[in-house]
């Protein structure tokens, strides 16, 4: 996951506005919006440090892409239930690939599509809960 994807999903899962997230890291709201859309990434290490401190993660989580990002992001955003749901999704997806008929590139595309749907459902659920 990109920095912007992690930031957006964790912000939404934590029920924070872009303004509140901006206050946490010490930037303007429009900077958070640009991070979330992938237009830019933080140039200053202090942004990663503040996010790590606030959410109880490492700066490496925010700076680097890792196969574990989906699970860790779900855990930060939605707690233990989110982590369990993400693990189940990964396990179920692995079952789909057990036959070996898909190339690694195709497997990654399918998994990315599943992640996208997972996050879209979470966002929609959060919107409905605030109504």
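^ Assign residues to that structure.
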């Amino acid at each position: 996951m990109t920095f912007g994807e992690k930031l957006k999903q964790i912000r939404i899962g934590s029920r924070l506005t872009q303004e509140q997230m901006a206050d946490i890291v010490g930037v303007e709201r429009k900077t958070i919006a640009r991070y979330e859309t992938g237009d830019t990434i933080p140039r200053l290490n202090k942004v990663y440090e503040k996010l790590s401190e606030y959410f109880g993660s490492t700066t490496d989580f925010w700076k680097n892409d890792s196969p574990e990002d989906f699970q860790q992001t779900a855990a930060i955003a939605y707690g233990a239930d989110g982590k369990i749901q993400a693990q189940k999704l990964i396990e179920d997806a692995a079952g789909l690939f057990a036959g070996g008929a898909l190339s690694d590139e195709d497997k990654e595309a399918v998994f990315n599509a599943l992640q996208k749907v997972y996050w879209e459902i979470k966002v929609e659920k959060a919107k409905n809960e605030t109504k």
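The mean pLDDT is 87.
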